Amino acid sequence: WDETHFGKMGSYYINRTFFFDVHPPLGKMLIGLAGYLSGYDGTFPFQKPGDRYEQHNYIGMRGVRLCRLFCAFLGSCLVPFAYLTVLELSKSLPAALLTAFILIFDTGCITLSQYILLDPILMFFLMGAVLSMVKCNSCADRPFSVSWWFWLSLTGVNLAGAMGVKFVGLFVVLLVGLNTVYDLWDLLGNLSLSLVMFGKHLLARVLCLIMLPLALYTAMFAVHFAVLNRSGPGDGFFSSAFQSQLIGNNLHNVSVPE
User: Fold this and answer.
1) Is the pLDDT of residue 59 over 90?
2) In which domain, by residue range, is 60 found?
3) Does some domain include residue 62?
4) What gap in Å lies between CA 97 and CA 119, rounded to an integer?
């Protein structure tokens, strides 16, 4: 059912047809991009679950069997992400291997990664954010180093990705936020650390974990509205002034009173 839903939205991006959805745009944009790059022309109607794809090139969007393409590839990335996270936290190779094997043989994870869904994309960014946060914590003894900045910035990028796919990504934002508050509170209690240095730590986190994700999240919508410039099923949710900017709309280029 959801493959029919989100596959259709991927086609909308390829055809540049405006639509409205309750979720932020990143997941659907990536689905559309994967289809476009793999040669899908956006013509499959996605009318009901179970319709045969026949001659349509869907492989780029829907990874089947061993095809490590897009959703299937992102789903397969969860295994090394979980392995590295647990290895960093526990320093135990058996624990990390056990975690990886649990995910490898989890039928729910395998099934979700086979179809055109937002779930593998969301889980990719969620686990990426957790891994980046854990890696950044491990660099606490060498703050402001290249690796420290890299993992801190990558955490912010993954937070924007998680929120850009579904609003449920807010939970990983909360997790990283609590970790950051704890980290800053610990630094504030370090009497050997000057207030100037503490201010630098605070500014770095504001820049990478607040400003960077907000900028990326806003940019997603900028791309969303730039790509979807043709009239479609989502026109009615927006104002007449907005509809006048959509190619094919009855109000296109019509002068609308303030």
Assistant:
1) no
2) 2-240
3) yes
4) 24
pLDDT at 60: 53
For 247, the 3-state DSSP assignment is strand
pTM of this prediction?
0.88
Of the candidates 58, 64, 46, the residue with the CA atom closest to the CA atom of residue 6: 46
89 within domain boundaries: yes
- Distance between CA atoms of residues 93 and 97, nearest Å: 6
DSSP state of 252: T
- Euclidean distance between CA atoms 248 and 16, whole angstroms: 11
pLDDT digits (tens, 9 = 90+) for 213-246: 999 999 999 999 999 988 888 888 888 888 888 8
Q: Structurally, how many domains does the chain consist of?
A: 1
Pick the more confident residue, 111 or 37. Answer: 111
Whether residue 78 is contained in a domain is answered as: yes
Closest CA to 42 of 53, 52, 51: 53
